[in-house]
Amino acid sequence: MLWKQSLISKHQIITFVLVLCADQLSKHFVMHNIDLLPYTVFSWFSIILLWNPGVLFGITLFDHPAAYVGLACMIVAFILYMFARTHCPKERWAFVFILSGALGNIIDRIRFGAVVDFIDLYAYNWHWPAFNIADAAISLSVAFLSVLFLKKPV
Predict the structure, then answer these.
(1) Which of 15, 24, 11, 29 is nearest to 99 (CA)?
(2) Residues designated catalytic
(3) Rounded Cα gap, residues 126 and 13, in angstroms
(4) What is the pLDDT of residue 1?
(5) Which of 22, 34, 59, 87 has the highest CB neighbour count under 10 A?
(6) Could you tell me the residue ranges of all domains in the chain?
(7) What tens digit of pLDDT does each residue of 22-38 get?
(8) Please, where are the H alpha helices in the chain?
(9) How many other C-beta atoms lie within 10 A of the C-beta of residue 3?
(10) How far apart, in whole angstroms, are the C-alpha atoms of residue 23 and residue 135?
(11) pLDDT tens for residues 106-117?
C-alpha cells in the first residue's frame, strides 16, 4: 500500500539501483582490466579507459573537481524537483534514468576527480566521444524527454 501513495514506485527504485550498479560495476571492471585495453568488441566498438575531468564531451569549465560535483548536485536537485512536479509516468521514468546516471558520474568525481569513460564507438575515421553507462542513461533519457515535450500540446 505504501508504494501506491509514494512519489516513486518500487520498480523505479529497483531500476535506479540496477542502472547505478551496472554503471559502477562496468567502470570497476574496466579499471581493473586495464592490461587488456583497448579491447575491440566489434569493428565499430571498442572498450578503452579514458578519464574525463570535464563535462559533456570533455569540455572543461572549472579547475577543481569539487566544482563539478557541486554543479552536478545542483542539476540533481533540479531533476528531483521536476520528478516531484510531474504526473506523467513517462517523464518520471526518464528522470529515474537521468538521476541514476548523474549519481554514477558524481560517485566517480568524488572518488577519482574525473569520470571514467570506456565505450568507444566509431566508423572509419569518425569517433563518437567516449562515454559510459551513466552517460548513455542520461543522454537517451534527455532525448526521450525532448520528444515528449515537443509532442505536448501548447
Answers:
(1) 15
(2) 117, 135
(3) 37
(4) 42
(5) 22
(6) 11-151
(7) 999 999 999 999 898 99
(8) 2-5, 10-31, 65-85, 89-112, 133-151
(9) 11
(10) 9
(11) 999 999 999 999
138: which 3 cell numbers? 542520461
42 burial type by CB count under 10 A (0-12 exposed, 13-18 middle, 19+ buried)? exposed
- pTM across the whole model: 0.89
**What percentage of the chain has pLDDT greater than the value 70?**
93
CA-to-CA dists, residue 66 to 31, 114, 117, 135, angstroms:
22, 10, 19, 19
Cell 579499471 belongs to residue: 31
Average pLDDT, the chain: 91
- In terms of Cα–Cα distance, which of 141, 115, 129, 98 is closest to 24? 115
